[in-house]
Design a protein that fits this description.
Layout (H helix, E strand, L loop, with lengths): L2 H9 L6 H11 L8 H13 L5 H13 L3 H12 L6 H8 L4 H11 L1 H4 L2 H7 L4 H13 L5 H13 L3 H13 L4 H10 L8 H14 L4 H10 L3 H6 L8 H16 L7 H16 L9 H5 L5 H14 L4 H10 L6 H13 L7 H9 L8 H22 L5
Helix pairs in contact: 1-2, 3-4, 5-6, 5-7, 6-10, 9-10, 10-12, 11-13, 12-14, 17-18, 18-20, 20-22, 21-22
Length: 399
């Protein structure tokens, strides 16, 4: 019997724990193994009884605890070890990177923002040890609501160092962290310089902050007018009702400005136009409808055409001109034809195969209405209100 197994059995003499022993031995052999929640809890009991165990054994037990998602009893132990710079600090920090949002929040609250952003953790964020770096990022990002400065600096360093995966992880933590004006402002100010690979994650983090604190949206909409960026446009999906008119106005003006020179746009302008079209679709902006036909033309850049056809699935209706426009493009090769077909299925009210002749036959036998702008606006306003209410109702509650 290995010393590790003997230690475990001795510490848990009062508990029958063959499952824990089996899991520990499998991890020692570097085998993949599923860990039941009860086994994770047993590992925490061992850690409580013997916090001074050798580093290798400590890491194995912590791995069992996090794989078994025994986060609630584990947090007090991690707090004790991470508050100090002792021998358990490194294994504890690696474990911290695997906590869920609630446990991470409890841990950072217990540590306090100063401890959660101290230099030792900031250094770990940029180190070679990937699990250790994720642990440092998890704490620094979670603490960003109270201490946005360190997080902003770390994100800038991660971007400059081309640590895209780490920056994405940090933004995922931010998206689940408490919202604050300081954190939101830090993200907002950095948004224009974010590389393309982080646009989506950055936008989701901004949107998550807006979901929690809609009052922050006014600053976002004002920034959108002055300095539009792809992450900010992506965040407009979370704009609250009192900002809808202004947000839609800025987005539509941006689309009109960029689309006036479709053939001369550089790649960054194309990306921004695509993001603006998608934002208008997410906001269910009726003002997008008269602009869409020009954006769908073959002379437009392909990403713009695809975004416009997708947007018809968002803002279009079972309206004669909308259906006819989509029917005109389903004959094109992929991805244009398949994108038009997907939006057509959303708006036509029938499910037919992607075969133009069948659709033409259906259209010849189908009378479709011609909706006026007022009808479109009323329909899209109701949809926007329902979507926002659903977004707020399904937002993960905070403790």
């Amino acid at each position: 019997m290995s010393p590790l197994v003997a230690l475990t059995l001795g510490l848990l003499a009062q508990v029958s724990s063959p499952e824990l022993v089996t899991v520990l031995e499998a991890l020692e052999r570097q085998e993949e193994v599923a860990v039941a929640p009860g086994v994770g809890g047993m590992a925490v009991e061992v850690l409580r009884a013997r916090p001074d165990m050798p580093a290798h054994d400590l890491e194995l037990h912590l791995e069992v605890a996090v794989r078994g998602r025994a986060f609630e009893p584990l947090v007090p132990l991690l707090h004790r070890w991470l508050a100090e710079d002792g021998p358990a600090f490194v294994p504890a920090l690696r474990a911290a990177g695997q906590l869920d949002a609630r446990a991470r929040d409890r841990l950072v609250t217990a540590l306090g923002p100063a401890k959660a952003t101290r230099s030792l953790l900031l250094e770990a964020c940029l180190g070679e040890d990937e699990p250790l770096a994720r642990g440092g990022i998890a704490l620094v990002a979670q603490a960003g609501s109270a201490q946005p400065g360190p997080l902003q600096n770390i994100l800038a360093d991660l971007v400059r160092g081309e640590y895209a995966a780490r920056a994405t992880f940090a933004l995922e933590v931010v998206a689940a962290a408490p919202a604050s004006e300081g954190l939101f402002t830090a993200l907002l100010e950095t948004a224009p310089s974010v590389p393309e690979g982080l646009h989506q994650a950055w936008g989701m983090a901004l949107a998550a902050q807006l979901d929690q604190r809609p009052a922050l949206a006014r600053a976002a909409v004002e920034r959108l007018e002055r300095e539009p960026s792809v992450p900010l446009l992506r965040a407009m999906v979370a704009a609250p009702p009192d900002c809808w008119d202004d947000a839609i106005g800025h987005v539509i003006r941006l689309i009109q400005g960029l689309s006036s020179a479709l053939g001369q746009l550089d790649p960054s302008e194309v990306e921004q136009l695509v993001a603006a079209i998608r934002a208008a679709g997410e906001l269910r902006a009726p003002e997008l409808l008269p602009i869409v036909p020009e954006l769908c033309r073959p002379s437009a850049p392909l990403p713009v055409r695809l975004a416009a056809l997708e947007a018809l699935g968002d803002v279009g209706a079972r309206d004669a001109w909308v259906i006819d426009l989509l029917l005109a493009y389903i004959t094109e090769p992929r991805p244009v034809g398949s994108t038009a077909y997907t939006s057509l299925l959303r708006r036509a009210g029938v499910r037919l195969p992607h075969r133009p002749l069948i659709w033409q036959d259906w259209r010849s036998k189908t009378v479709l209405p011609e909706l006026d702008p007022v009808e479109h606006a009323a329909r899209l306003l109701a949809d926007r209100e329902n979507r926002y209410a659903h977004r707020q109702a399904t937002r993960a509650p905070r403790d």
